Amino acid sequence: MHAPIRGNASMNRTFRLLKRRLVGAIPVLLIVVIGSFLLLEAAPGDAVDAYVASVGGDAGMIEALRQGWGLDASPMTRLAAYLWALLHLDLGHSVAFSRPVRDVVLERLPNTLLLMGAATALSFALGTALGIVAGARPGSARDRALSIGSLALYAVPGFWLALVLTIVFSVELRWLPLSGMETIASGKVGFARALDVARHMVLPVTSLGLIYLALYLRMMRAGMAEVWRMDFTRAARARGIGRRRIVLSHVARNALLPLVTMLGLQSAQMLGGSVVIESVFSVPGLGRLAQEAVGSRDTPLLIGIILVSAALVIVINLLVDIAYAALDPRVGASEASA
Amino acid sequence: MSLARLLRSPDAVAGFVILGLLGAMALAAPLLFPGDPLAIAGQPLLRPFQDWALPLGTDRLGRDVLAGLFHGARTSLAVGLAAAAASILVGSIVGTIAGFAGGLVDEVLMRITDAFQTVPGFLLSLALVSVVGPSLGVVVMAIALSAWTGPARIARAEVLSIRERDYVASARVIGMHPVEIAFREVLPNALPPVLALSSVIVAAAILTEAALSFLGLGDPNRVTWGGMIAEGRAVLRSAPYLSVIPGIALVLAVLGVYLAGEGVVEGTAARERQA
Amino acid sequence: MSALLELRGLGVRYSGAATAALEGVDLALAAGERLAVIGESGSGKSTLARAIAGLLPRTARLHGTITWPGLDHPARNGRDIGFVFQDPGSSLDPVMALGDQVAEVAHANLDMGWRAARRLAVELLDRVKLPEPAALARAYAHQLSGGQKQRVAIAAAIVARPKLLIADEATSALDTIVQAEIVALIRALVTEDGMALIFVSHDIGLAANLADRIAVFRHGRMVEQATTAALVARPRTDYSRALLVAHLGLEA
């Protein structure tokens, strides 16, 4: 009944978990693809209209293209063709950019990853730290203040915060650049360029991350309040362990676990949030691209962004699962002993 | 009795006061500002507190900001409540079917739920509005499309724990039809935890609506706070109040929903502890 | 024999409770003495154990005095008092390696570096007769049985060789065979280290097996205390007699 204690048990656990999650991701991705296909079908115009609109061509050419691309076939055949193209990483043709969707998306992806990564790091680090401060003594004045402050912050829409921060820091104080990813044609390289990009990213990262900071703070605080009620914190006190160590190594350590799971679940929401934030600050990322796609009625591009985002969310969740398995020794234990 | 308990929590009182005021604003909007809030009311870019006929001033086109605020409350609350109701309804039905049917049906429905949770909700809303075209109904649908998964998961988990209980078994024994059992015996009992989530869903719906309007994807024939914020962006340097004022209304609305929701949940929890 | 611990008129009232959880308890414990505290749930026996170790919730109000004539300083948890809880499953942190949970007691109470503390932890796991102590130090609570977990908890309690070990219903969550093993382990450790023992239990048979002296509690008051032999042979109160009869009835 009790698993033998093995040296490489945790590696085995992680691999088993990964394999199961990867297999589980396949039907999910398939459903997303079929959904995207339906949305594409529902949109007025088809891929040929889009192509011709951007490249130009006459009625005869349109007919030829429709046949060539198999668009005159039955929906099932077209779905099969769509899947086949996706398997070859062909996301279709963007009307607005007159280029393959894949190329446009891949060009913008790194900027969004940078924005999301920085916002996640900021909100997670600061949110858990403040959550520990609040949760160290439940019911204290500091706890109350942080709790109310985080709730207020949680109610602030990111795009409005972005505008307010812009008014204060870019328009009034002139400390930070108004928009963009870096100073255009500055000729900066190396460290100077990195610093320039960092200055440009301060406001977008803050606007995107603050709401999650509030979320992580609240979760950490609530989680710690729950862990305080568990017997092992009293046991640690009975063993003469100092309060500081109980708070950090036992209470916070246990309360951190659900936050790690949240990190994966929030990735989809944060990608959605990056649409408005990137639009406000003109950050050339995936989110702003989505808005441009909507503006120019470029449905293939929008669907491409959705597919790439879904794939990204799946990958992030896989990484989070691995991290979680490393942090919680109980993961996969029931299968190991079964 | 439960009202008395509710009034003991200052947070909950603040929440209900805010919501009450916003509700009154929404209801009073057509009485206090009977004209079209999108019509020109005075000289453009009038600052707040200059003219008592237009206390909060006017925007770039000379539209009354206060009238916009009142009519915007209507849109925000209506869309927030409708989208939340739709997602709770759809989510509860899907969750109940999945939990009660089990087997392949459950598997398929839960994979679909997974798929919806994998796609960034806001992108999904964006895509739907962009393909179908912006109108109030479509915006409600678009928000619900990305928000029904939470209620579905909770409803399913509740149904799974309820369906083995005695009263369900006895319903089975007396030969009730499974669909009847699911929706008359199981769903009503699975609903409270789903409803506990409703304040979060309403708040998220209000924020999503505002973000869609901010990007110009709201119903063009209605004033929305998100749209007002976007409108003010063009004159952010000279007239920041145009973006700040509707934003404050938005923050208060969402905060009010959270506070009231937390008060209700805590009140219920306290009652259950005492019982 | 000099007294290690003296209680004078000890009373405890939890906030919001109508009656006191503990009232007017006078009790002395000699160094190295083994005392069993017996009672049903709600008798105040666990409250007594927690009051002695200073583990009552902050809202609880305490009357009377707890003094430590046998110590030249106020008693410190971990160093002077070892405490073993009822539920071995929940008294260990689920996500910290077991060896570390024993080692942190050494680090906190013996001014010991982490490396030395971990070595000592393995020795202690061996001392409480756990198999493969070095491998077990790297394992986690969910990998162990209830009895094994309680052995780890006992190891964590005796790290600093305290003068007093308090076992609060430490065996009642375990099955009978494991119970006997844990009682045997506690007896051996207490004898080897010369520790005093307060063994809180509802099981008078188990207590009689282990203790020099028995104190019987009911409704927050001590109804009787006597040496084990005296109490078993000639209980002075009806309640003690009833407890004994109930126990013997089960045995018969």
TrEMBL record, chain A:
Q: Name one GO cellular component term.
A: plasma membrane
Arranged from A to Z, the UniProt key words for this protein are: Cell membrane, Membrane, Transmembrane, Transmembrane helix, Transport
Q: Where in the cell is it found?
A: Cell membrane
Name it.
Answer: Peptide/nickel transport system permease protein
UniProt-listed InterPro entries = MetI-like, MetI-like_sf
Q: Which residues form the ABC transmembrane type-1 domain?
A: 109-324
SUPFAM superfamilies, per database record: MetI-like
Q: Which family does it belong to?
A: Belongs to the binding-protein-dependent transport system permease family.
Membrane-spanning regions, if any?
A: 21-40, 113-136, 148-171, 201-219, 301-320
Tell me which CDD domains the record gives: TM_PBP2
Q: How does it sit in the membrane?
A: Multi-pass membrane protein
Task: Tell me which Gene Ontology terms the entry assigns under biological process.
Answer: transmembrane transport
Automatic annotation (TrEMBL), chain B:
Top-level taxon of origin: Bacteria
Chief place of localization:
membrane
Pfam families (UniProt xref): BPD_transp_1, OppC_N
Alphabetical GO CC annotations of the entry are: plasma membrane
Under the heading Gene3D superfamilies, the entry gives: MetI-like (1.10.3720.10)
Where is the protein localized? Cell membrane
Q: Which residues form the signal peptide?
A: none
Domain ABC transmembrane type-1 as annotated: residue spans:
73-261
Q: Which UniProt keywords apply?
A: Cell membrane, Membrane, Peptide transport, Protein transport, Transmembrane, Transmembrane helix, Transport
**GO BP, one annotated term:** peptide transport
Record's bilayer topology term = Multi-pass membrane protein
What residue ranges are annotated as transmembrane?
A: 12-33, 77-101, 122-148, 194-218, 239-261
InterPro entries named among the record's database cross-references: BP-dependent_transpt_permease (IPR050366), MetI-like (IPR000515), MetI-like_sf (IPR035906), OppC_N (IPR025966)
Is Transmembrane helix among the key words of this record?
A: yes
The answer, when asked if Membrane is one of the entry's keywords, is yes
For this entry, the protein name equals Peptide/nickel transport system permease protein
Organism of origin: Aminobacter aganoensis
UniProtKB/TrEMBL annotation, chain C:
Q: Name one GO molecular function term.
A: ATP binding
Predominantly, its location class is: membrane
Kindly give the membrane topology term recorded for this protein: Peripheral membrane protein
Q: Which UniProt keywords apply?
A: ATP-binding, Cell membrane, Membrane, Nucleotide-binding, Transport
Q: Which residues form the ABC transporter domain?
A: 7-244
Organism domain of life: Bacteria
Which PROSITE patterns does the protein's record reference? ABC_TRANSPORTER_1, ABC_TRANSPORTER_2
Where in or outside the cell it occurs: the entry states: Cell inner membrane
Q: Under the cellular component aspect of Gene Ontology, which terms does the record hold?
A: plasma membrane
A Pfam family name for this chain? ABC_tran
Family (UniProt): Belongs to the ABC transporter superfamily.
Q: What is this protein called?
A: Peptide/nickel transport system ATP-binding protein
Species of provenance: Aminobacter aganoensis
